[in-house]
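Help needed: design a sequence for this.
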């Protein structure tokens, strides 16, 4: 569902097609109040503007929650040429057409 290698590689390679495919059209971001289209527009702008992106994923945990959904949590360290942060990433996944899609995302600065 949520491979740390996949997550790290998407940011490094700026693979927007792969990134977009991980998210449900029903996606909503709790921490910046964006729906799927707003989120993708924002991420596209950010990824295209940044250079030397490095994302590290640590302490990945995946566990079931209600209604056939799962949650993945991990510590994410993000670095680019002009920005860096570290925090807890929480992703909620739901099954859509036989694959897992991200339906909700939270971020807690550390």
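Sure. Designed sequence:
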């Amino acid at each position: 569902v949520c491979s740390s290698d996949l997550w790290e590689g998407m940011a490094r390679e700026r693979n927007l097609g792969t990134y977009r495919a991980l998210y449900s059209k029903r996606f909503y971001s709790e921490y910046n109040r964006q729906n799927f289209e707003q989120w993708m527009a924002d991420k596209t702008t950010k990824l295209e503007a940044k250079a030397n992106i490095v994302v590290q994923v640590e302490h990945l945990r995946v566990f079931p929650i209600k209604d056939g959904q799962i949650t993945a949590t991990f510590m994410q360290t993000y670095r680019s040429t002009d920005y860096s942060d570290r925090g807890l990433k929480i992703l909620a996944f739901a099954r859509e057409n036989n694959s897992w899609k991200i339906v909700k995302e939270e971020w807690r600065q550390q």
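The chain has a mean pLDDT of 85.
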